[in-house]
Amino acid sequence: MKLLAIDTSTDFLSLAVLNDDNTVVFHERVGQKHAEQALPHVQSLLRDAGLTLQQLDGIVYGQGPGSFTGLRIGCGLAQGLAFSAGVPVIPIPTLDSVAEQAGATRVVACSDARMQQVYLASYDLGTPCRLSPILLLDPEQAGSELQLDGEGWVGAGDGFAAYPVLASSTWGPQLGAIHNDIRPHAASYLRLAQSGRYAHLPAREADLLYVRNKVALTSREQQARQR
């Protein structure tokens, strides 16, 4: 299988190209320079992998949730490249990538959504399936809105680093380990895409999973959160 994976949902630029059994990866923190750095690095990875765009079986991208601007950059790049090459796009939710990297069967994936909120979902990777919808919650709501059955769960994602209450008291002993340094990663998207569980869509149908429809709080809302 020959795939290009793109994720720009965080301050990292994460890219990977799969050419059958050979994978080349670029994964570095670039801040807000995704737009200027993504295409040159894509071209470099394709060259290193010995592929052209037209030889790809599809272009995978992080569908969201994540940074609004970053998601649009990644989706736009994937869509444009797919159009030009005549290949499908494969959108994959960012939390699926976070969960896939946890190295466990029962995973709570949790990413920092900023504005004092988190994105989170629970997974059974033995099945494999997402057990819950992807939720946007205040950290204090997480325990009541996302209830875990039994013990042996693993936490994954930078939401646990941003809001330690999630590990210390929300789910307590149900979480056997916390991997709070995991972020969406292009190599993970490649593995997920190869599972066959994600739809291959025409480039014109590339879409995003925002979860949050509001980008910023009003001044009054900011003051209310500080009380």
From TrEMBL:
One GO cellular component, as annotated: cytosol
CDD domains associated with the record: ASKHA_NBD_TsaB (cd24032)
Gene Ontology terms: biological process: tRNA threonylcarbamoyladenosine modification
Main location: cytoplasm
Annotated localization: Cytoplasm
Pfam families per UniProt: TsaD
Membership in a protein family: Belongs to the KAE1 / TsaD family. TsaB subfamily.
Name listed for the protein in its UniProt record: tRNA threonylcarbamoyladenosine biosynthesis protein TsaB
Species, as recorded: Pseudogulbenkiania subflava DSM 22618
